[in-house]
Amino acid sequence: MLEVLFHTDMLQMDTINKLLKKPATKRRTRAEMIAAAAAGTLGEDGEHESADPLYVRWTNNAMGSSINVPVEWLEAPVGEVLRTGWSGRKMVEEVA
Q1: Residue ranges of the domains in the chain?
Q2: What is the rounded average pLDDT for all residues in the chain?
């Protein structure tokens, strides 16, 4: 009888420990991330989804600074400035 109670207690403790144990994190492996990046995200019509046209991505690293803008910006009047650069002009001009 004592063995049965001991066995039951051990099973209960094992069950409680399993329930209290943190679940493993669901991480994607490096290979899965590379495959997802290579495949790209496709929209409903089969084309790549574009970024939100309200946002700009600016990066600054050892190779220099760069600004990435949506295609919609390049088609707008500001696109001319973005394509050709500022070419010595001041970004802000003082007005008297």
Answers
A1: 49-86
A2: 76
- Indicate the pLDDT class of residue 27, thresholds 50, 70 and 90: confident
Q: How far apart are CA 48 and CA 40, in angstroms?
A: 7
Residue 28: both structure tokens together? 């994607």
Helix spans in the chain (H)? 2-20, 30-39, 71-75, 78-84
Reading the block at residue 86, the tokens are: 């500022």
**pTM attached to this predicted model:** 0.37
* C-alpha closest to that of 69 among 91, 47, 52: 52
Q: How many Å apart are CA 65 and CA 80, to the nearest integer?
A: 19
